[in-house]
Amino acid sequence: MKVTHRRYVPYSHAHYGGSLVDGAYVLGLFGDVATEVCIRMDGDEGLFASYSDVQFLAAVRAGDVLEVSAEVTRVGNRSRTLAFEALVVCRARPDLSASAAEVLEPPIVATTAVGVVVVPVSSG
């Protein structure tokens, strides 16, 4: 199972020069897609247990549009292992005008991770 969300990165989330956004922002989005995976698979929001192999591969900037996905790679009794990916699919172009932006083909792989979520024991 794979769940994908898209999100515009608002300028209010820029914390660093060059309109850079901190990595925690993307990890929060990974939590959102993980929650939907748990709801779809188990009828429960679940809890995030751990991350492993988090890789920040490219900058995320205010004005980006991110495509964030979680794909189930392993199912245990109560645990689900998920592979996460955050792609920059659109990017602001303030060098052209205040509101200019472009679609990125191909998208930029910004962040990847592996995470584990847990859900309650099934009552069925």
Automatic annotation (TrEMBL):
A GO molecular-function descriptor: lyase activity
Organism in which the protein naturally occurs: Acrocarpospora macrocephala
Gene: kal
Protein name per the record: 3-aminobutyryl-CoA ammonia lyase
Lyase found in the keyword field: yes
Domain HotDog ACOT-type residue range list: 1-123
Alphabetical list of InterPro entries matching this protein: HOTDOG_ACOT (IPR033120), HotDog_dom_sf (IPR029069), Thioestr_dom (IPR006683)
Gene3D superfamilies documented for this protein: Hotdog Thioesterase
Keywords: Hydrolase, Lyase
Isomerase keyword on record: no
Pfam families listed in its UniProt record: 4HBT
Residues spanning the signal sequence: none
SUPFAM superfamilies: Thioesterase/thiol ester dehydrase-isomerase
